[in-house]
Input
Amino acid sequence: MMFQTFSGGSSNVITLLPLNMITPEGDTNRTSHFQLLLSAFTTNDISVDYVTSSGTAVAGSDFVSTSGTATITAGTASTNITLTILGDTVFELNERFYIDFSNPVGATLLTNRVYFELQNDDSPDPVRFNRIRRLQFGGPLRLEFNPGQAGAIYQIQASDNVRQWETIGQMTGSTNAFEFTDNASTNRTKRFYRTISQ
Output
C-alpha cells in the first residue's frame, strides 16, 4: 500500500493508494507483512483502520483474522500490518482474502479494499491409469484414468522408449473418470504413458 502526495492549490494532499499482494501459501504457519508507504515525509500522524475478511481463503483455515489501526507517525514514511498465514501441504487452487480499510485520518482513502492472494505451492494427487485398451485391431489406444486432484491440470505424455517424451494431451482433475484416445498410437506395438502435474 502506498500513500502518494499530490499538489492541489496551496497545500499538498496525501492520498491513500493500496496495492494488492501475492505470496506463496507455504507449508507451515508464518507471518507476512503488508506495508503502508508514504511518498513523502509528513509532519502529522496518518492513520487508517483495517480488518481482514474471507474470500476463497477462509479465516481460521488459511489465515488468522485480524483488525486494528495502522499509524504512520510524523517524521516517518512507512509502517507494516502483520498478518498470520496458515500454511499446509494440501493441494489447493490459489486463494484470496481481503483487507478492508476505513476511517483514514490525514489522508484521503481512494480504495477501501485490497486482496492478499495465497498461491498454491503443493503438488496434487497423482493420476493413475485404470486401463489401456485398443479400440480396434491396429487402431489407437484409449487411456482411462482415475480423477486425480480436482482442479489440478495434468499433461498426458507418451513415449516409445521411455527416454523421449512428448505431450499428447491435457486433462483437468475432477470427480469423474477421464478417458483419452492416443491417435498417434495406431499400429504402434510399444507405447508408454505418464502424466505430469502443472
About this structure: DSSP finds no helices and 16 strands in the chain. Confidence is low (pLDDT under 50) at residues 4-14. Residues 55 and 97 are 5 Å apart (CA to CA).
